[in-house]
Write a structure and sequence with these properties.
This protein is of the alpha+beta class. The protein is about 55% helix and about 15% strand. The protein has a two-stranded antiparallel ribbon with strand order 1-2. Helix 1 packs antiparallel against helix 2 and helix 3 packs across helix 4. The longest helix is centred in the middle third of the chain and has 18 residues. The radius of gyration is 15 Å and the shape is globular.
Length: about 90
């Protein structure tokens, strides 16, 4: 996995933050898919990332990658739940 993690300490004017940089569609996909199993806020972020990745790659490239990484049945289940499409507010 190509992952760079950086912790930025808090100061008087802002909270601490963590920045993750993932490189490549496979690593982004794996990270975002695992976010779907987390708390609601992380799950929503994972769905946004997956939808944006699919838009960026195009369904013709994203869908075969997703089927390959998740298996056909799991991918189709997630696709049916709308995990790879943007919500109306985002369009």
């Amino acid at each position: 996995m190509s992952l760079d993690a950086k912790f930025l300490a808090a100061d008087r004017f802002q909270d601490a933050e963590v920045r993750l940089t993932l490189t490549g569609p496979h690593d982004i996909f794996r990270f975002a898919i695992n976010m779907l199993r987390s708390q609601v806020e992380f799950c929503e972020a994972g769905i946004k990332v997956l939808a944006q990745l699919r838009d960026s790659m195009g369904a013709d490239r994203f869908d075969p990658m997703g089927r390959s990484m998740l298996g056909i049945e799991t991918f189709e289940k997630y696709l049916g739940h709308g995990y790879f499409t943007r919500s109306e507010e985002e369009l």
